[in-house]
Sequence to fold (114 residues):
Amino acid sequence: MKKKELLIITILLAISLGGIALFYGLNATDQPLSVRVSRAGEVLATLPLSQEYSETFKDASGTNTLVISNGQARMTEADCPDQICVKARGISSPGETIVCLPHKLIVEIVTGDK
Fold:
């Protein structure tokens, strides 16, 4: 390799690493994370992700049990036929969601207490 090629590779690598660091730095947040639970567009609850919590959400379409523990929100029980929401992994980052389509229930992580 020639010196110029090595210099160009080094510069491109530095720019790439700087871009990654900037991206993650801008996406970091000081605001606390919350779990927002909504059904058919209506917000049912906004709960802090940092506190242990369990609640069962019921309506005519069925029931879902949400558990918040260890900084994650999980759907532990549901009486829907497919159980996709129960099989979903726990969520803990802004923008992540758990959806129960038969019950029209959406659980999402948001910043602050929006």
